[in-house]
């Protein structure tokens, strides 16, 4: 497999990006990478080889750039060129830790949507107390959604969890303000009916407070609600560890206790750490495009690579296409009956 990597995207690029690539190259013997970015900066951390190519460009898309304008005006940027590699068949997937909106725009304009998918979704794996994690679709790609969009998110999430996370029957939940069937907006009520009549393992409405308990394997929602959930979980985790650190270092007695409990706290932090779950997949595009976290360290970027590789190896995009055709045929048969 060959990956195109935006080496200049993210808070700690290019060093953390390249360190993550090095871990991946050591882990996967069949992996090759094309690092797109400033060649001089890249060569400070890695040299080209038969498994590493460098595609030079001095143009980057910044975090504050307008997504659409940046993609159209900076066609020779590291992000756009990485996705162009996929479009031209020179790479099987692309990864960037850069501007999220620009990556989604570039994915849509360059790679394009899967036929039958109305709106792609930005979909991260988030931690659960049991360690399995859950997939949340959508977390900001589309602020305004239709019922058909959320239904398609569920189909894509179902395929991903089966193929990549090896969950035999993924439990699909619909994010709502209550668990009762009649709760929510007109949108959620319509989505509830669609999912209830599908062949997927729909467990009904789920509340935000139960997500970390592992109430569902896939949770679907509109991008506005999903982004609020994502930021709330990230913010709560950061605040919690900040409070713990402050309290456990406040007195000599607490410091002694902290020393004893340090291994346990490390395990808790690892369990709740986003870096262990890879990046956010841009589901619904014609190839695996992964958005790594902007503050990714080398381990986080490696896990994003692992996610992209698994999506490619397990033919996730092709399977989504097949499922869409199957669902379309099932719908036509029901209409005839």
Automatic annotation (TrEMBL):
What does the record give as EC number? 2.3.1.274
Q: Where in the cell is it found?
A: Cytoplasm
According to its UniProt record, this protein's enzyme class is: transferase
Q: Does the keyword NADP apply?
A: no
Keywords in alphabetical order, please.
Acyltransferase, Cytoplasm, Lipid biosynthesis, Lipid metabolism, Phospholipid biosynthesis, Phospholipid metabolism, Transferase
The reaction(s) annotated as catalysed by this protein in its Swiss-Prot or TrEMBL entry are: a fatty acyl-[ACP] + phosphate = an acyl phosphate + holo-[ACP]
**Main localization category:** cytoplasm
Query: Which GO terms fall under molecular function for this chain's record?
Result: glycerol-3-phosphate O-acyltransferase activity
Q: In which pathway does it act?
A: Lipid metabolism; phospholipid metabolism
Superkingdom field: Bacteria
Which Pfam family, an example, fits this chain?
A: FA_synthesis
Family from the record:
Belongs to the PlsX family.
Q: Which PANTHER family match?
A: FATTY ACID/PHOSPHOLIPID SYNTHESIS PROTEIN PLSX, PHOSPHATE ACYLTRANSFERASE
Q: How does it assemble?
A: Homodimer. Probably interacts with PlsY.
Stated role: Catalyzes the reversible formation of acyl-phosphate (acyl-PO(4)) from acyl-[acyl-carrier-protein] (acyl-ACP). This enzyme utilizes acyl-ACP as fatty acyl donor, but not acyl-CoA.
* Name of the protein: Phosphate acyltransferase
Organism of provenance: Evansella vedderi
Q: Which gene encodes it?
A: plsX
């Amino acid at each position: 497999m060959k990956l195109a990597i935006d080496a200049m995207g993210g808070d700690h690029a290019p060093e953390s990006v390249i360190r993550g690539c090095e871990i991946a190259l050591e882990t996967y013997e069949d992996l090759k990478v094309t690092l797109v970015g400033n060649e001089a900066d890249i060569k400070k951390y890695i040299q080209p080889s038969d498994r590493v190519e460098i595609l030079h460009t001095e143009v980057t898309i910044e975090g504050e750039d307008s997504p659409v304008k940046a993609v159209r005006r900076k066609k020779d940027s590291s992000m756009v060129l990485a996705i162009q590699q996929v479009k031209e068949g020179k790479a099987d997937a692309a990864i960037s830790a850069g501007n999220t909106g620009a990556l989604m725009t570039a994915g849509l304009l360059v790679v394009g949507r899967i036929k039958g998918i109305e709106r792609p979704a930005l979909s991260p794996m988030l931690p659960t107390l049991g360690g399995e994690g859950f997939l949340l679709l959508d977390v900001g790609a589309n602020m305004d959604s239709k019922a058909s969009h959320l239904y398609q998110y569920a189909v894509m999430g179902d395929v991903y969890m089966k193929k990549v996370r090896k969950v035999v029957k993924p439990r699909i939940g619909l994010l709502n303000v209550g668990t009762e069937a009649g709760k929510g907006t007109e949108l959620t009520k319509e989505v509830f009916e669609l999912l209830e009549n599908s062949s997927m393992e729909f467990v009904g409405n789920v509340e935000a407070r139960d997500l970390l308990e592992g109430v569902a394997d896939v949770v679907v929602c509109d991008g506005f609600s999903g982004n609020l959930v994502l930021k709330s979980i990230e913010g709560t985790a950061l605040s919690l560890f900040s409070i713990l650190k402050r309290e456990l270092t406040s007195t000599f007695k607490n410091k002694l206790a902290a020393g004893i409990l340090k291994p346990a706290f490390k395990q808790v932090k690892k369990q709740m750490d986003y870096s262990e779950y890879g990046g956010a997949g841009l589901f619904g595009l014609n190839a695996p495009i992964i958005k790594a976290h902007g503050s990714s360290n080398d381990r986080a970027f490696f896990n994003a690579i692992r996610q992209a590789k698994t999506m490619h190896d397990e033919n996730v995009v092709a399977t989504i296409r097949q499922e869409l055709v199957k669902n379309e045929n099932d719908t036509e048969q029901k209409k005839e009956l």
